[in-house]
Design brief:
Helix content: 10-25%
Number of strands: 9
Strand content: 15-25%
CATH topology: Immunoglobulin-like
Oligomer: single chain
Shape: globular
Largest sheet: 5 strands, mixed
Radius of gyration: 18 Å
CATH class: Mainly Beta
Length: 174
C-alpha cells in the first residue's frame, strides 16, 4: 500500500492534534487522571503528573498503577495527622486511605487556590504533588502556598513551583 503525500500529512496533523489534547483536557473540564507509580523494586515512587492546573469544579482521579505498593493521596492539613496547612482554608481536606494496585480515589475541587498533598508511606521519599485550582490570571498564588512546616527535605525538593504549573499547566516529574 502506498500513501500519497496528502495522506501522510493528514496522519501527521492528526497525530499532532492528539498529542496536544493532554493540556487541553486538563483545562477543558474533563476528569483529570493522576497516576500513582513506582519502580518494580520499590526504589522510587511518584505521582504523575506531579503538578497540575485545573478549573474550579473539575474532578481529579488518582489511580494506583504501582503493582508492588499501596499509596494514599492525603491533603496537607492539620485534620490529617496534624500536618501543616498547605491548601485553602475553606477547602475540605481529604485522605484516600490506602489504595491497593488498580484502586482509585476521586475528588472534585471547588475552592480556588494551591493544594499540596502527599502519600502517607512515601512522603519521606518525595511522593508529593501540587494542584492549582483557578484561573491563571488570579493574583496572590504564591502567598496561598503554606509555610514549609515540618516536611521531609525530599518532599520539599519534589514540589513543582507554582510558576511552572501556571506556565505549563501539567508538570511531570523530572
Amino acid at each position: 500500500m502506498t500513501l500519497t503525500r496528502r495522506e501522510i500529512l493528514g496522519v501527521g496533523g492528526g497525530l499532532a492534534a492528539v498529542l496536544s489534547l493532554s493540556s487541553v483536557a486538563v483545562w477543558g473540564g474533563e476528569m483529570v487522571e493522576i497516576k500513582m507509580q513506582g519502580r518494580d523494586d520499590g526504589s522510587h515512587v511518584w505521582f504523575d503528573p506531579i503538578g497540575i492546573l485545573i478549573k474550579p469544579g473539575q474532578t481529579i482521579r488518582w489511580t494506583n498503577l504501582n503493582r508492588g505498593n499501596s499509596h494514599t493521596t492525603t491533603a496537607y492539613n492539620p485534620a490529617n495527622f496534624e500536618r501543616p496547612l498547605r491548601m485553602p482554608k475553606a477547602a475540605k481536606p481529604w485522605n484516600s486511605d490506602y489504595l491497593l494496585p488498580n484502586e482509585s480515589f476521586s475528588l472534585t475541587f471547588t475552592e480556588q487556590g494551591v493544594y499540596d498533598y502527599y502519600c502517607i508511606p512515601h512522603e519521606h521519599a518525595g511522593m508529593v504533588g501540587r494542584i492549582i485550582v483557578g484561573e491563571p490570571e488570579a493574583h496572590g498564588w504564591a502567598e496561598m502556598v503554606g509555610a514549609n512546616g515540618d516536611l521531609p527535605e525530599e518532599a520539599l525538593k519534589a514540589f513543582p513551583t507554582v510558576e511552572d504549573i501556571m506556565t505549563q499547566r501539567v508538570v511531570r516529574r523530572a
